Amino acid sequence: KELRIGVVGVGAIGRTHIERINDQLQGGRVIACSDVNTEFGKKVAENYGCTFYEDGEEMIASGDIDAVIVTTIDPYHEQYVMAAIKAGIYVFCEKPLAPEAEACKRIVEAEISGGKQLVQVGFMRRYDQGYRQLKEAIKNRTYGEPLLLHCAHRNPAVDESYDTPMAVENSMIHEIDVLRWLLDEDYDTAEVVFAKNTRRTHANLMDPQIMILTTKSGVRIDVEAFVNTGHCYDIKCEVCCEDAILNLPEPSNIEVCANAVRGHAIHSDWSTRFVDAYNVEIQEWINSTKEGRVDGPTAWDGYVGQVTAKAASKARDNQTVVKIEMEEKPDFYN
Length: 334
Ligand code: ISE
Known about the structure:
Elements: E1 3-8, H1 12-24, E2 28-34, H2 38-48, E3 51-53, H3 56-61, E4 67-70, H4 77-87, E5 90-94, H5 101-114, E6 119-122, H6 129-139, E7 146-154, H7 164-183, E8 187-194, E9 209-215, E10 220-226, E11 234-241, E12 245-247, E13 255-258, E14 261-264, H8 270-273, H9 275-290, H10 299-318, E15 322-323
Parallel strand pairs: 1-2, 1-4, 2-3, 4-5, 5-6, 7-10
Antiparallel strand pairs: 7-11, 8-9, 8-15, 9-10, 11-12, 13-14
């Protein structure tokens, strides 16, 4: 039986999830959707042949769907994730779980008191082939202990609404999640330092920045966020282990030899760079949901990510090293 899915928030990524579920993946179908912009939402619903609900919470409580995908703008995530927990249905929420750590904590508490894990957070990098290869090598200690990591998160350009905190809270939040998963441990401290600003930035954005994290066992990580490179979407992850240096591979492209240059195209946008990761992520979510499990990043992971990001933001604002403090992981998530 197909998983009946509803989508709240059918702006950009909501629609790509509908398309991948209905056209490419197996085992699920988006049959309902909702959007605060009624006129736009109705058009989208018509386009994809699903039932439109003016009120997302009503859709979640309707009994017509088995699971919901939350792709509204970030400040509304909490409301719909909470509604799903209340209705007892599985929910996939795009990253971040909520913009404030406190809101993530409320979600964790609601899920625990509901007594069943229902929430998955959309940290898609865990589904990327390359990161999965790194994870395998690190987990097995094939090349000894990982000691330090050099990473980069480069975007071609961002708009004027993207400001200094977003480098951590919107972009490097991906590294915060995926590196913690890769190393299978939590962070101890965070720091953010600045570089020389690019001429392409604007008054409210320090670009590039470098975030420095240490893990509990002492692994040191630096992540460059450079979001106005002007030319590329480029994700780097170099893991220095005791016996080898490991580098994140990129999805491959044909090699072209022309005009006295031999090379291959690289991605200029996250939506194409991680398209395979998104497909695997949503397929695995459909599969585990049908089997009654959450296999992916949990609400706890969403909370830890946000606590870490806020610590890094504080470190940046005060130009100090901040110790990352949070509660013990509840047994519920073990
Ligand atoms: C964006 O929100 C994303 O999630 C992308 O994956 C990231 O690369 C980009 O920097 C963010 O702005």
